[in-house]
Amino acid sequence: MTRVLLATKNLGKVAELQRILTGFALEGASYEPGPETGRSFAENALAKAHEGVAHTGLPSVADDSGLAVDALNGMPGILSARWAGRHGDDLANLDLVLGQLADVADGRRGAAFVCAAAYALPDGRSDVVLGELRGTLVREPRGTNGFGYDPIFVPTGYAVTSAELSPDEKDAISHRGQAFRALAPLLTAALSS
Amino acid sequence: MTRVLLATKNLGKVAELQRILTGFALEGASYEPGPETGRSFAENALAKAHEGVAHTGLPSVADDSGLAVDALNGMPGILSARWAGRHGDDLANLDLVLGQLADVADGRRGAAFVCAAAYALPDGRSDVVLGELRGTLVREPRGTNGFGYDPIFVPTGYAVTSAELSPDEKDAISHRGQAFRALAPLLTAALSS
């Protein structure tokens, strides 16, 4: 099975993506990733994948994902992981969004999880695809699965939050599942040509 | 001199606007304003002015102002006063924007102060105008004048922050100065017809 670097140190993402990219043996990043300075999910995902190749020489995949809140003009967006001001404090980020939306009425609490999934190869080739999951934001966190903003996000057509879905249910509809299922055949084709 | 209610409990705004609206005797709000639920500065300013009339029976003026940051898709915007999750904590709001922009390069730190200024009269007439001041955001607060995001905002063409300008200098260029200087003759005309 082809070894592929997954350019992240986020263990939640590694577990989630290994369930989706069943045809590859994923390895997490052991280097310290540089700052994310792109202006879009796609730009950041491509930069991370190229960075993975540069550090390891392996074919590399990466994602940049986040929550785009309608009432916040699409933010936290690419700043989702550092929305509360420092990187990776999921609870603080989620609490901050709830506080910012405290006076936003139920009918205006639309949002989307967005994922850009990219690969890069040692020969310099690369590609990126997008996945999106629409939903609404509730006022109190519910559920213990998932990570990030999952506990306040109810996917359209569901009555439960992303954090109340089982891992399999979540993968089937998630932004990250959609993006990486679209990326997998592109990566397979690129590796064999 | 015509008594006019200024629909705010923000003492910084009262002082600033009394310097600009020299032809009227401003009174601050003694009631508790309702939540701001509009989708734009203009919608909020008009709602606050009508609320002032409803509470006092006086001609009322109001503003809704905020900082629109390019790298935040125009946010904090109408949520500027509650950006850190609760209302009115200027220091927390400013620190949060600095944290969110920590990895945003100097060339991408553009922003604008935006103000919607509105009046409403007891007979139901109302109007609203906009003022805007472009600038860039620095990485460390400087200066002790002003309030809100003034210490991190350098107006275009200036080398100092809004909080390093004297009150007179700030009024001459500020978003709020521009909007209320445009509103004053409209209010005067409406009151005399």
If you had to describe this structure to a student in words, what would you say it looks like?
The structure is a homodimer. By secondary structure, chain A is of the alpha/beta class. Chain A has one domain (about 5-190): Maf protein, CATH 3.90.950. Helix content of chain A is about 30%, strand content about 25%. Chain A is built from five helices and six strands; from the N terminus they run E-H-E-H-E-H-E-E-E-H-H. Chain A has helices at about 10-20, 40-55, 90-100, 165-175, 175-190, and strands spanning about 1-5, 25-30, 60-70, 110-120, 125-135, 155. In chain A, helix 1 links the parallel strand 1 (about 1-5) and strand 2 (about 25-30).
**Regions of chain A with pLDDT < 50 over 5+ consecutive residues?**
none
Largest interface: A-B, 25 and 25 residues
Q: Label the CATH architecture of chain A.
A: Alpha-Beta Complex
Provide the CATH top-level class of chain A.
Alpha Beta
What is the chain-wise order of helices and strands of chain A? EHEHEHEEEHH
Using the CA coordinates, give the radius of gyration of chain A.
Answer: 16 Å
The fraction of residues in strands of chain A falls at 15-25%
The count of helical stretches of chain A stands at 5
Helical amount of chain A: 25-40%
In the CATH scheme, what's the topology name of chain A?
A: Maf protein
Question: What can be said about the biggest beta sheet of chain A?
Answer: 6 strands, mixed
What oligomeric assembly is this protein in?
A: homodimer
Number of strands of chain A: 6
Distance separating the two termini of chain A: 17 Å
Shape of chain A: globular
Could you report the average pLDDT of chain A, rounded to the nearest whole number?
94
Structural class of chain A: alpha/beta
| Spatial arrangement of strands, main beta sheet of chain A | 2-1-3-4-5-6
- Kindly give the count of domains of chain A: 1
